[in-house]
Structure formats: C-alpha cells, structure tokens
Amino acid sequence: LSGLDPAQPYFQGTPIEVRLDKSDAEFVDVIHTDSAPTIPNLGFGIRPAIGHLDFYPNGGEEMPGCDKNPVSQIVDLDGIWEGTRDFVACNHLRSYKYYSDSIIYPDGFLGYVCPSYDLFKEGNCFPCPEEGCPAMGHYADRFKDKVKNEFTKLYLNTREAKDFPLWRYKVSVTLSGNSKVEGYVNVALYGTDGNTRQHQITKGTLKPDNTYTAYIDVEVNVGEVTKVKFLWNNNWINPTLPKLGAATITVEVGQNR
C-alpha cells in the first residue's frame, strides 16, 4: 500500500483502525508532502510516521515550487484546472506527482534514513548505507525485505517542477593560491550519463589551503564521474588580479558511496 500524503484532519491521532497504518498490508510506504499543522498552516497531510517507510521530501511540509505567485500557478503549464488545484492544495498534490515521476526514474528519489530534515541538510545521514537507500514512490517495495520493525523516516530533496528527482553528492574543494579573496566557488559534474549545471560549494572568504564542503542535489544522475569543472569569482574587479585554483576536488556519490 502506498499512502500519498494521507489526510491529517479527522485522522491524525486516531486509532489505527481509522487511519492508514503499517498493519494494513505486508508493506506500507508513505509520502508526506503537506504535514504542517492544519491549524494555523492548513496542512492537509498526516505528520507522524505511520508506515514501514515514511518519506518526507523537502522536509515534508513545504514543497519547492508551491510558493509561486497565484497568477503563475493558476495559468499553469498543465492547464488552468491543474493550476487552480495546485494553487489551493499544491503541497498536498505534490505526492501523486512525485509518485508518477518515480515510475519513470527507478534510480531517482532516494530517501536517506535520518532523525530530522535539519540533520539531513547538514549531511549527517550521507551517504546511503551498504544495503543502499530505498526509493520513494513506485519502487519503494524493492526494499520491503530490509525493513525493520520500528518506524523509518527518510528525507530527500526534489526539484520545484517536473521532472522532480534529484541526485545527492558530497563535494569537497581544497583551494590553492597566494592570497585570500571574497567570492564564491562553483562546481559542475560531468559523467558517463550526462552533466550538471554549476552548483555553489561556498560563498564568502576564500582562503588557499582551506577545504570547503557542500552537499549538492543535482538534476541528473551523471553515472560515473569523469570530469569536474571548477569556477570561482570574486564579483568585483580586483587590481591585484588574485589567482585561485583547486588543489583537490573530492566527489562522493550518495547512491553507491
């Protein structure tokens, strides 16, 4: 059984006979996309973990792309009816959109087991364990024989519009150069299956010999990494023409460590 943002009002906190529960089937996976409290946030979806695997994309409360202004949402690419529904219940309806995208992307939407979304964002629950990460959506049941008895909360990020899946990487850059500068460092990944756009690794004071690490969610699974592109910029004209390079760049793939 797959729960697509099961309802919160009249169901949350009720006995298991009344609402969806892991005892309802051999394997129950749940996608939570609108789990903010109904009062005052108008969350339509149930908050607690109730299945064998409970996925909380983007933290499970506010979905990216749902904060667009009402006009752009109602005149949606998918038509006025779809756009109007999204305006009224965008977070809630994301659950079925993620699910339908997951059918097309068997290796997408990997959920990382983590105590909280904040810890996930900080990279505490990266990479996937030896046995891998379950995939949110259609292929979650591939993991059903590895499920433990307690509730399992999983976190991941998605894009703000179709296609929704993202793939997570840890990137560490050690700088080289002769003087510190203010600016930012971007990295793009190239691989056997495609390449990403530039993703920011750090911003602020850039010091040679320092290592800067970021967890990036990229829009394509690049396959085996073959090349990394490093760019830095200090945003303003510096008469001393500082030079900065990357001594080393380390990329760790969340999916297969």
Q: Could you give a quick summary of the protein structure above?
A:
The protein is of the alpha/beta class. The chain is 15% helix and 30% strand. It contains 4 helices and 12 strands.
Q: Which segments are poorly predicted (pLDDT under 50) over 5 or more consecutive residues?
A: none
Shape: globular
The CATH superfamily of the largest domain bears the name Alpha/Beta hydrolase fold, catalytic domain
What value does the Rg take, in angstroms?
21 Å
Average pLDDT confidence is 91
Count the beta strands: 12
Enzyme class: hydrolase
InterPro entries: AB_hydrolase_fold (IPR029058), Lipase (IPR013818), PLAT/LH2_dom (IPR001024), PLAT/LH2_dom_sf (IPR036392), TAG_lipase (IPR000734)
EC number: 3.1.1.26
GO molecular function: galactolipase activity; lipoprotein lipase activity
Write the layout of secondary structure elements.
Layout (H helix, E strand, L loop, with lengths): L1 E3 L24 E3 L6 H4 L11 E5 L12 H5 L5 H25 L7 E2 L3 H5 L30 E5 L10 E11 L3 E11 L2 E2 L3 E8 L4 E8 L6 E9 L10 E10 L4
Parallel strand pairs: 1-2, 2-3, 3-5
Antiparallel strand pairs: 4-5, 6-10, 6-12, 7-8, 7-9, 7-11
Membrane topology: Peripheral membrane protein
Pathway: Glycolipid metabolism; Glycerolipid metabolism; triacylglycerol degradation
GO biological process, one term: lipid catabolic process
What does this structure look like?
Residues 167-257 form the PLAT domain. Its EC number is 3.1.1.26. Keywords: Cell projection, Cytoplasmic vesicle, Disulfide bond, Hydrolase, Lipid degradation, Lipid metabolism, Secreted. It is a peripheral membrane protein. The chain has helices spanning 38-41, 70-74, 80-104, 117-121, and strands spanning 2-4, 29-31, 53-57, 112-113, 152-156, 167-177, 181-191, 194-195, 199-206, 211-218, 225-233, 244-253. The chain is an alpha/beta fold. It has 2 domains: 1-165, Rossmann fold; 167-253, PLAT/LH2 domain (Lipoxygenase-1, Sandwich). The strands form 3 sheets. A 5-stranded mixed sheet has the order 1-2-3-5-4. Strands 7, 8, 9 and 11 form a 4-stranded antiparallel sheet that branches. It has a 3-stranded antiparallel sheet with strand order 10-6-12, with no helix packed on it. It is globular. The chain starts with a strand and ends with a strand.
